[in-house]
Amino acid sequence: MNNADYKNAGAGTKVVWAGEKAALAHNATQVPIMLSAAFQYDDIDEWYDVAMGEKPGHIYSRMSNPTVRALEEKICVLEGADNAVAFATGMAAISSTLYTFLRPGDRVVSVKDTYGGTNKIFDEFLPGMGVEVRLCPTEDMVLLEREIAAGCAVLYLETPTNPTLKILDIERLARAGKAAGALVIIDNTFATPLNQNPLELGVDIVLHSATKFLSGHADVMGGVVCGSGELMRRVAHYREINGSSLDAFSAYLIIRGMKTLKLRVRQQEASAMALARYLQGEPLVEQVNYPGLPEHPGHDIAARQMKGYGGIVSFVLRHGMDAVRILLPKLVYANRAGNLGAVETIYGPARTTSHVENTLEERLALGISEGLVRISVGIEDTDDLLADLQQAFDQLRQSL
Ligand SMILES: *Cc1c(COP(=O)(O)O)cnc(C)c1O
């Protein structure tokens, strides 16, 4: 690894430079898209040593690939991890990590507010494999600590949560998890490595959907997992056999997108704060969720553990789904879509985005009302986004 040079640099420098040296060829300044299924060796003994992991190198792209490796090394430097493993999607990263470490008879403690796909693993797949899952209300710290102390193999966290932007105290929960002997895993997708580094707060494994802010352009899928060398060796072994590896072209797109991560996220959170403030004063809005607002119940914890509050805001419309149906089509600078973290602003109700897999009753039980809309704020000019939202609300007012 040539990463030592960048360990002390700022995050905005790391996203540009870190992890790339080993992949550069022919004096190129950019990481190549290494489209080769296999790698060949004239020296049969060298081939064996690389295959056994005793010498650096690549054998077969399901196991490792130079372009994918560059992405993994960049993530390591950003999160302060020993090693990282990249996957075809964020869900492949999450499910593979859970399946690597859980066995029948194990117990998992997590919160009700995890990403919809993760929630399905907890509700549907793990119980079928003999794993007991205990999902606690996200805001009930006392219950969470009691359930963790009752014993668990894995403590699985996510903060800020999707789409209600609740904040968990990472350091406190990681301490409780370690005291119970649990492996502590966190989904860091919403915060990005720029705003939150959970390994420094006692977490063992950090996961990202690279489809979102890391790549940033909504044109590629990917996931990454990082942590200690020993934990990542086990995750990499699972990936090698399960086969959900990232491909070189996708890795290239993620590396390319990551170069501007800091510029994008800083712009997105400046606009997110402006939109949140505007929404607070809008009479047709019942509730605004943004951890950057001093009124947000998790603001103090967020201020402690995050360097910025991120580009996601959500709000509840007073007239529920009827108002959602009118407001969203009126927006000009907006995609109405299920993803987030892109350069374009994206609006979506929880019903068709994060919680499309849930029934109405399940959503209501999670505190997600039909009028809840998530904004993934893009990099457009703040004034344009504000004016756009304002004109859409004016039209909504006229049609009610
Ligand atoms: C999108 C997302 C995922 C899943 O990632 P995919 O790349 O879509 O598989 C996991 N966690 C969070 C918080 C997400 O936003």
TrEMBL record:
InterPro entries: Cys/Met-Metab_PyrdxlP-dep_enz (IPR000277), PyrdxlP-dep_Trfase (IPR015424), PyrdxlP-dep_Trfase_major (IPR015421), PyrdxlP-dep_Trfase_small (IPR015422)
Modified-residue entries (N6-(pyridoxal phosphate)lysine), positions: K212
GO biological process, one term: transsulfuration
Domain of life of the native organism: Bacteria
Pfam families linked: Cys_Met_Meta_PP (PF01053)
Cofactor(s) annotated in UniProt: pyridoxal 5'-phosphate
EC number: 2.5.1.48
Alphabetically ordered keywords of this record: Pyridoxal phosphate, Transferase
Catalytic class of the enzyme: transferase
A single GO cellular-component term on record: cytoplasm
Molecular function GO terms recorded: carbon-sulfur lyase activity; cystathionine gamma-synthase activity; pyridoxal phosphate binding
Gene3D superfamilies: Aspartate Aminotransferase, domain 1 (3.90.1150.10), Type I PLP-dependent aspartate aminotransferase-like (Major domain) (3.40.640.10)
Family listed: Belongs to the trans-sulfuration enzymes family.
Protein name from the UniProt record: Cystathionine gamma-synthase
Natural source organism: Zobellella denitrificans
